[in-house]
Each structure stands twice: as C-alpha cells, then as structure tokens.
C-alpha cells in the first residue's frame, strides 16, 4: 500500500525524524494494517510501542512518528503498509445452544468463532452421548438448519472451526425432539397375579402417547362392576403387600394426557394362605328363624399334628358381618338364624403367631320360607241381616320362628268379601252382613311375606 505522506526532519545530532501520514479511508476500518520500516545502515525506533501495528479500525488520519539514528551515515529508511492480518487460530465466540422442537418442525443451531484468516466451519453430530462425532454432510455454514425427526432426539451437535493456524471446537448442544401429540395407547396390560398372604405383589403396565401420559391405578372389589382410584399408585408399577382383603380384587391402569385416556384390561389378584378355613352348618337348609350353628375348622401346617388353639374367626354373610368366635381345638362356631333366601357364608381367621390369616371359600346356605297355617273362627249359623265376624290367625310352623306379616283375603266361594292386614301378633278380624240365606263356604287365604309361605283355611256358615 502506498504511504500518503512522509515528512523527514533534517538530521540533528545524527538523528533523522520521520512523520508518516496514513490516508483516511474506510478500507482501513475493518483491517489491521502493519507499518513496516526498512532501515539500511542504521537503527530505527518508533516513538510509541503501538506504532508497529498501527492503523486498524479508524477512518481518520493516522500519524506515526519515528526516528533513525547513525553516527557514521544516515540510514536509508523506507516505509510500507501490509494489509494482511496477523494470522490467528480460531477462537469460539458463540457456541450453539440446546434446542427442543416437535417432530416435523424446523430447527437451527448457530455458532461463531474469530480467527485470521476467517475459519471454515464443519458441523458434527453424535448419537452416542458425545462419545464419537461424525461430520454432517453439507453443514458448513455458521448456521446449521433442518427438519426434526424422531431419530434426531437426544443427539448432540457441535461446530468445528478451522484455518491455517489451527482448529476450535464448540461445546456440544443437545437436540431434543418430542413426538407429535398423540392420545395414550396401551401396549402392555397388567397380568393376573397370585401370592401368599403377607407377600409382596407387583402389577406393571405400559402405554405410548405424546406427551408421556400420567398413570392412575384403580381397584375393583365387586368383580369389575365399579372401580376406585388407589391412593398414591401413579407409577407404571403398582406394588404392595397382600392381605386377605385383596383376594379376588381386580386392578387396572388408566393412562391420560392432553389428547385423551386409555384403560388397560383388568388383572386379578389372588391371595392364598398356608392356613385353611372350612365352613359348614349343622342345618344345611334351615327355615326362616330356625337356628343353626355355623362351624369354621381352622388348620395350619405350622402346628404340625396339633390343632390351632388361638385366634378369632369372623363369619360374614356376603359382606355383612354375622358374628365372631374364638378358635378352640381347631374350631370356632356361632349359632345364628337367617332370613329366607340364599346366603353366602365366609369365615375369616385373623391369624395367631406363626399361623397365617386365611379365608374360607364361599359356603352356600339356602334358607327357606317358614311354613304357615291359617286358623279361622266364626259363626257356624247366623241370621240373615245380622253381622258375622270372622277371626283369623296365621301360625308359623315349627321349627321356624317368627310372626307372619302381610294380609289375609276372605272369600265367599269365588266372591271376594275383603282383605285385612295382620297385626303384630299375626291376627286379623273381618265382619260382614253381605250374606243371603243359605250355606256359605268362607275361605281365608294368607298371601305370605318374604319369610313366610302362603296358606289358607275354610269353614261353612249357614245363614237362615
């Protein structure tokens, strides 16, 4: 580059001073220019330490001063500007940032580095957590862009800047790609599980979905008719310690995200015990009100040939508690009476020492309606036009017990005279004057109630 102006001061004491003017042009604003001096036959010194690297970054006039010295003859001094930057290895000034997008969306990573000459760029990717990297074909600009796929998820990208003086590698940026929103889909339902009472159990379920769905386990104790949430059971694995109350329950998992829900099929939990409980009844088909003895026999291998001599057995009619009794000589019994109908009896042994808790299988106990008979009294003869009163009593047949309720219908032949309700003692009365002269067959029919069967009685009354 030419020097705009060099002013030489006359030699004073063997020293010649030089003042150099650098032209004020914008081309010098973005480059560092080095002012070079060649001094033949003497020494040359700059007045300032920075003069040797003058002139970069300014569009104004730059003045640089120096002097040449010689005690023999004045040196031959010449000046020149070198507009080539000082070589410098790349230095990362802006690394790429972690990026998260949804699959199918565009993405961009940006990096920057200084260096002289300006370094080239090569983006690289790692799919093994940063252990190894490979070049990304065509990714040679300071911005690396593309369209995200699921295969990009969890990858790491970095930029390598290179020039003749060396290379610089940015820190790695993590690329997270989430799937497009999708409702949960069950991919693994829980399996039926059987354990011994006191042992741990686990149910496992899995479902896909985006975002990842939450989980709520539910339990049913009525054969799957209804379900309720299990408090705290919000992981893909539901675990616990089995109790007798868990036996025959059903569990399922409900997966939910913003796009919907999915429910797994139900899995059965069977809880067994080394203790055995068997139920029987002294009367296998009692009538309403008839007493029977329920007997529970408790056995356990832990007692060897000896009988279980401690603990309590609780009897249930379905889910309704009936009574409890202490085990003596391996048995516990209670005396009870039931309403008419079908009854499912179970006995639950609460455990004692090493003897585990246990529950019997269902013992079916059918209870029949009590037999009844109608006792009717009334006039055998009566005058026409006078009232005739009939008294009816419904008697419960042994061995059943209890008082019949309901109504009694009175008929004269096929004609209905009226219906009356039984009182608290099972009795009723009926009075009528609607009789013509002649013989009338009066029938009283008891209609029964849930616990008592029907019955009837007749008598003849002569009206004159």
What does this protein look like?
This protein is mainly β and 464 residues long. The protein folds into five domains: 5-82; 88-178, Sandwich (Immunoglobulin-like), CATH 2.60.40.10; 184-272, Immunoglobulins (Immunoglobulin-like, Sandwich), CATH 2.60.40; 276-367, Sandwich (Immunoglobulin-like), CATH 2.60.40.10; 372-463, Sandwich (Immunoglobulin-like), CATH 2.60.40. The protein contains no helices and 42 strands. The strands form twelve sheets. Strands 8, 11, 12, 14, 15 and 16 form a six-stranded mixed beta sheet that branches. The chain is elongated.
Q: Could you give a short description of this structure?
A:
The chain is an all-beta fold and 464 residues long.
Q: Keywords for this structure?
A:
464 residues; mainly beta; Immunoglobulin-like; 5 domains; 6-stranded mixed sheet; 42 strands; 0% helix; elongated
Number of helices: 0
Structure classification = mainly beta
Instruction: Say what oligomer this is.
Output: single chain
Sheet with most strands:
6 strands, mixed
Radius of gyration: 54 Å
How many domains in all? 5
Examine the secondary-structure arrangement and name the CATH architecture of the largest domain.
Sandwich
Broad CATH class of the largest domain: Mainly Beta
Name the CATH homologous superfamily of the largest domain: Immunoglobulins
Q: Unreliable stretches, pLDDT < 50, 5 or more residues?
A: 22-34, 47-84
| Fold-level CATH name of the largest domain | Immunoglobulin-like
Indicate the mean pLDDT. Answer: 86
Shape: elongated
Percent helix range:
under 10%
Q: Strand fraction band?
A: over 45%
First CA to last CA: what distance? 159 Å
* Secondary structure: number of strands: 42
